[in-house]
Specification:
Distance between the termini: 9 Å
Shape: elongated
Radius of gyration: 22 Å
Number of helices: 6
Largest sheet: none
Strand content: under 5%
Structural class: mainly alpha
């Protein structure tokens, strides 16, 4: 098997490429993608009403973690107020605050390639 170093890529270059890919994805996120996602979420809320057992389970779970009943009942209106800018800001905040651990495994001298 070939490691990234054999391909001329350092661990730091790989980390940088991953960070760039994440930032590019955030920059490319647009209103069209937001609308598609919103439609899926809103459709899911409609279908949820078809099955009272699923609805009861989800409502119970949301209340258990602190969502007020009013917010649960108005999820469709709340979701429609979220903008592309809001999504990008939240994603950047999550990526910047997420704990990160990285390391590089290298074969012992004389082992592997």
């Amino acid at each position: 098997e070939m490691c990234i170093r054999d391909r001329g890529v350092t661990a730091e270059e790989l980390r940088s490429a991953v960070n760039t890919a994440v930032e590019d994805s955030l920059n490319e996120y647009n209103q069209e993608e937001q609308d598609k996602l919103l439609n899926k979420l809103l459709s899911g809320l409609v279908y949820l009403r078809d099955n009272p057992f699923d609805a009861a389970y989800i409502i119970g779970a949301m209340e258990a973690v602190g969502y007020p009943l009013e917010e649960i009942e108005n999820q469709d209106k709340i979701l429609q107020k979220i903008s592309v800018v809001d999504v990008k800001a939240a994603a950047r905040r999550l990526f910047s605050q997420a704990p990160k651990v990285s390391g590089t495994l290298e074969p012992e001298k004389g082992e592997g390639k």
